[in-house]
Amino acid sequence: MDRWQNRVAVISGASSGIGAACARLLVAAGLQVVGLARRTDRLEQLRQSLPAEQRMRFHQHKCDVSQELQVDTAFEWIEKELGGIDVLINNAGIVLGGQLIDMPTKDINNILQTNLMGSIYCTKLAASSMRRRQVAGHLIFVNSTAGVAGYKPDPADESLNAYTPSKFALTAVQEICRQELINQGSKIKTTSINPGWVATEIVPDETKAKLGEVILQADDVAQAVLYALSTPPHTQVEQITLRAVGEYF
Ligand code: NDP
User: What is the similarity comment for this entry (predicted)?
Assistant: First the structure.
């Protein structure tokens, strides 16, 4: 991780779960971390909980990633305060359950705006910052097993019906970014991390009860992010799929 010392990592959705776990690991690994989220009180709690010598490397900015103007404002602030972006972890995401063909369109829009468009807004600005400064940065997408070809939805659980298209689209976004960056002669890396169920706030209590111990922890996913980042400049980890041992779907 030597080459990332004091480099700037932006994590969307750092106020809880996987994003917060990534923030802890990256700050401890010596990066400057900017956490984006809507709940600034939770970002502040995270900052306060860090060891004192790491706290000054955690920065926070309120940002609803589904709103392009808010993303623009947050990234302008990062450029001004920290000089640019070297690593982006597109992690912010929501789940709204229901049957795709029957649920309110506004819920489907909300999922797509957050999980897909939010990642695209952040990716465009981060890639622009990296290319302008000629940095071989890293774009990481916290995707899902629901975004991987071959995913079979559980017919008894409709919580992911509208979420699944947002994550499938994210798989395409990562591959398109990879190809575009190669064509531009860029050394920026792209990685998708695809977890199965993880014990975080996004997962309903009844699902957690059903899964019992067959569930990943946020830190398991953060460790996969850290691994992808820690590879040498010539190595690109394209996909990591992680499931708890025994997870069926
Ligand atoms: P959490 O609910 O704990 O975290 C979600 C994070 O996203 C929060 O920090 C939340 O912050 C943020 N967020 C949501 N909407 C927005 C928004 N509009 N703007 C900015 N931030 C937003 O769940 P996880 O940690 O599990 O989720 C993180 C990612 O992992 C998601 O993309 C999810 O799809 C993915 N994932 C999760 C799995 C699981 O089983 N938990 C499995 C596979 C993938 P705030 O509310 O403060 O804005």
Answer: Belongs to the short-chain dehydrogenases/reductases (SDR) family.
